[in-house]
Every structure is written in C-alpha cells, then in structure tokens.
Amino acid sequence: MRALLLRDLRLAVRAGGGFGLGLAFFLIVVVLVPFGVGPETALLTRIAPGILWLGALLACLLSLDRILALDWEDGSLDLIATAPLPLEAAVSVKALAHWLTTGLPLVAAAPVLGLLLNLPGPGYLWLVLSLAIGTPALSVIGTFGAALTVGLKRGGLLMSLLVLPLYVPTLIFGAEVARRGAEGMDPVTPLLMLGGLTCGTIALLPFASAAVLRVNLR
Amino acid sequence: MASIWEYANPRKFMATTDRVLPWISVAAVLALVVGLVWGFFFTPDDYKQGSTVKIIYLHVPAALMAINAWLMMLVASLIWIVRRHHVSALAARAAAPVGATMTLIALATGAIWGQPMWGTWWAWDPRLTSFLILFLFYLGYMALWAAIENDDTAADLTSVLCLVGSVFALLSRYAVNFWNQGLHQGASLSLDKEENVADVFYYPLLVAIAGFVLLFVTLVLLRTRTEIRARRMRALIARERMA
C-alpha cells in the first residue's frame, strides 16, 4: 500500500505537472470571478465562501481523470488489480494520493485566495476547516467517477456529468460551513454533517469503485 | 408453481407482455382521458388560485412517477446485480428516459403554475432543486448507458451508478432542505392523513395518477420489448456474419 501511495505521489509531482495544475486552475477561477461580477468589495465578501468552495470543487474535478486513466493506458492498472492487495484498498490509496496532491494544496491555498476575494476575518478558520474536512469526500467520490469511465475513450465530459451531481451534498454542507463562519454564525451543525458525509463516503464508496473497476477490467 | 422469475426468460416475457400490453395501454388511455377531462372541465375553480389549480392533474402524477421511475430502476438494477436477468437490466434502461421526461413535465408544469402564483418561473426551493438534481441523475445514467458499447458492461456500470446515485439523491434531498427554506407547499396527498385535498379535486386526481402509472408501465414494457427485439436482431446479424 505504501509503495503504491509513494509511486502515485512521485508520478504526480514529477511527471506531467499534474500537481500544480489544479492549484493554477483554482487561482484562475478565483481571479476570473471579479471580472465577471465586478470589483465591489461588499459583493465579493458576500460570495467569497461559495466561490472558493466552487473553485476548489472544479479544480478537484479537473484532475480526476489522472487518477486512473494514465494507469489504464500503460497497463499498470491490470498489474495493480492482479496484485495481492485488494482492489478496494488500491482504490482507497489512489483516492488518498489524489487528495494529497490536489485537495491538500487547495486547502493550503484557500486562505491566500480568500484574501483576494476580501473574505472577512472570522471566515478563514472555518473555510480552511471545511475544505480540509470536505475535500477528501470530493477525492473519494471522484475516484468512483473515474473508475466508472476509465474504459471510455472520451470519458472526461461524461465523468463531469456523472460526478457533479454526486458532489451536490458535499458542496452544500461545505459552502454552508464557510458562509456561516464568514457571517459570524454558528457553523458547527453543517460541519458535523460534512464530517459525517466524508466518513461515510470514505467507508463505503471504495467498494463501489472497486466493483466498477473490476467490471471495466474484465 | 408460477413465479415472477419466469419472466426473466425473454421468451416468456415477450409472450406475456404481448398479450397484456394492449389491455394496459387501452386502460392507460382511458384513465388519462377520464382523469384529465374530469379534472379540467368538471371541477370547480379554487377560490384563491382560480383555474390554475387544475395543473395539479398533470403536475402531481408526473412528479410521483418521476420518483417512482427511479425507484423501479433501483429495484431492476438490484435484480440485475444479484440474479443477472437481462430483462431486468433492459427494463431499467427502458425506464430512464420515461422517468426523465416525467421529471421534466413536473418541472415545466410547476414553472407554468409558479409564474402567476408565486410570481416567478423558478425559485431555489428545496423541492424544486431536488427535482432538478434528480433530472441531472437521469441524464448521467442515460449518458453512461449510451457511452458504453458492451451491453453487459454497460448494465453492470449503470446498475452500480443507480445504487450510488440513489444514496446521493437522497442525501441531496435532505442537504437541500438544510440549505434553503421552502416555498413549495407540503404534500397534497398521503396515505396516512385524514384530510387530503377536497374530494372534488381528489377523485379526478386519483384517476389521473392511475393513468400516469399505467402510461409508465405501458411505455416501459414497450421500450423493453423494443430493446429485446433489437438485441435479437443484432444476435441474428452477428450469426449470419459468422456463417
């Protein structure tokens, strides 16, 4: 498991620049928003938590096809599947690697980008906390989407169509935590919901991902 | 002893549906015509909503079937996963576009009613939003069926998507409740409540619902039969090529 994790991390960092791509995309989305809605700080303050969550979600989505598609193309996915490691564990490790290379940098970058959008002071802590708790769910759900579409030639667009509706509950609770935090309300309830959602997806979805991956490798 | 699993045999399924389908379709047309005509022309206007209330005869049955179609797909997908009956997978596939259309009808009629009543075509109300999300799930499900060439692979993947999607659709339903307060009224019909809508509206509504259920059954059976025939045709063509 550790070998697989290290291998995925090394590949992400060294090959193809997938590591910085998600971050750069996040930055660009956040920079584009003021161009779209105008530079008034009051408005930006109001929509900042939602925009930051949406940007993080899209950046996550963008890098999903790298989780499995590259391994599928060069055949190493077959080797991973025939290895003694259960496929459920392999899928979980892949999701973890995706989170470490995409989700975690997003969490770290969010406060800086919050500055650009004039996020109010008490919001930073809750924004970072909600992203740190919510992005693992995004990675795990995304791995399921990637496993569903891995055998398809032009699966990218289809994967977005499949994955985005699955992201709805995570986005709602996550953005709610950030919004309530920024407006000085009590964000604990949605935070607990978000935590429950993340734990639930981590516990259950790898089985579904492994099941569809087995079908695709048949 | 006859069991429901006999219909997993496509021959048996085709023979039975061949006999049953005309009756069901005639019953569907009858119930729809009676329910809608009764509802539209022989019920009084509501004292507050005027004649706009009559859209209930399209809106409520369509919304009901939009959810029940997904439930039926869920059951059919489970049967496919557990017992691997092809008819079941094909029925799930056949139900998806019908369910999506029902969702669209419910959304459209709701918007048409909402414009004069709420003063807006669309509000981000929990019920409206969760129906929109349900529609997205239907779209994803159908797109996945269409994208995969191998029939069995497609059936397997869409079944799992249907299971996972059901869980997430339910989650979204409650998440959306949490996210925004509702404008939509509560349930008009329920089995355990003493009072439903007034009887003058209630009975034609029941007939219209029966009509929509029968219509759904008719369309699903028809589409399943088409799928089975298409598959037989492909098998025949493949066999001829081999010879």
Concise overview:
The complex is a heterodimer of chains A (218) and B (243). With 218 residues, chain A is mainly alpha-helical.
In terms of structural class, how would the helical and strand content of chain B be classed?
mainly alpha
Radius of gyration of chain B: 20 Å
Note the overall shape of chain B. Answer: globular
Question: What would the average pLDDT of chain B be, to the nearest integer?
Answer: 86
Distance between the termini of chain A: 23 Å
Helix content of chain A: over 70%
Tell me which oligomeric state these chains represent.
Answer: heterodimer
Protein model, in words:
The complex is a heterodimer of chains A (218) and B (243). Chain A is an all-alpha fold. Chain A has one domain. Chain A has nine helices and no strands. The longest helix of chain A is centred in the middle third of the chain and has 30 residues. The radius of gyration of chain A is 18 Å and the shape is elongated. The mean pLDDT of chain A is 87. Chain B is mainly α and 243 residues long. Chain B contains six helices and no strands. Chain B starts with 9 loop residues before the first helix and ends with a helix. At the A-B interface, helix 8 and helix 9 of A face helix 4 and helix 5 of B.
SSE topology:
The complex is a heterodimer of chains A (218) and B (243).
Chain A: H1 2-14, H2 18-37, H3 41-62, H4 65-73, H5 76-82, H6 87-116, H7 123-148, H8 155-182, H9 188-217
Helix pairs in contact in A: 1-6, 2-3, 2-6, 3-6, 3-7, 3-8, 6-7, 6-9, 7-8, 7-9, 8-9
Chain B: H1 10-41, H2 56-83, H3 86-118, H4 126-147, H5 151-179, H6 199-242
Helix pairs in contact in B: 1-6, 2-3, 2-5, 2-6, 3-4, 3-6, 4-5
